[in-house]
Write a structure and sequence with these properties.
single chain, alpha+beta
Length: about 190
């Protein structure tokens, strides 16, 4: 019997097209689980832009997207996402609904994913499980004000990349920082 594998997405997976990843999954559907996400990770590969991550402390509850993997082997689906994200296996969350294997960083996040997966008859859910690194990088607690200050400190090229990431995020990403960024003239 084929395994139903869902990949969760909320940021650049949906808009930054990468054929080597995209050919292995179907269209994005906007009825995924509700997860707490925020632009609270400073990205080295995006010149210091703030990127979306699951953030149990500072995140806003948003219904994220999902896509069905075309892979038959669960390991291939996990490796696809790991490769697309350019990260380690430790930063890829997954949960087999039969309880055989699971890797995750936050229990409440997993609970939401499990409940959703059961309702959709999904056997395996895979998601990017990078953590916020804001406090570690800037030695300052994450807040909308401190995040705006960080964005304002970026050079012009980095600001452009940061703006692209925030503006390209799907409409369902309704977080306090996104609202603030879209309301203030920070891009000077």
């Amino acid at each position: 019997m084929p395994i139903n594998i869902a990949i969760l997405g909320w940021g650049s997976l949906l808009w930054d097209k990468r054929p080597e990843f995209d050919e292995h999954h179907g269209d994005w559907e906007l009825d995924g689980p509700v997860l707490k996400i925020e632009f609270s990770r400073i990205s080295q590969t995006r010149d210091g832009a703030l990127t979306l991550v699951v953030d149990p402390e500072n995140g806003a509850a948003c219904r994220v997207a999902h896509s069905r993997s075309k892979r038959k082997d669960p390991e291939d689906a996990i490796c696809d996402l790991q490769s697309r994200e350019g990260t380690t296996r430790a930063n890829i969350g997954f949960h087999f609904l039969d309880g055989s294997r699971s890797q995750y960083k936050d229990q409440a996040t997993l609970a939401s994913i499990k409940e959703w997966a059961i309702s959709k008859s999904i056997d395996l859910v895979v998601w990017t499980d990078l953590s916020s690194n804001f406090e570690k990088q800037l030695h300052s607690q994450f807040s909308v004000e401190s995040a705006l200050a960080h964005l304002q400190s970026l050079d012009a090229k980095a600001k452009a990349r940061a703006a692209e990431y925030v503006w390209q995020a799907p409409d369902f990403v309704a977080t306090p920082l996104r609202t603030a960024v879209q309301a203030v003239p920070w891009f000077k």
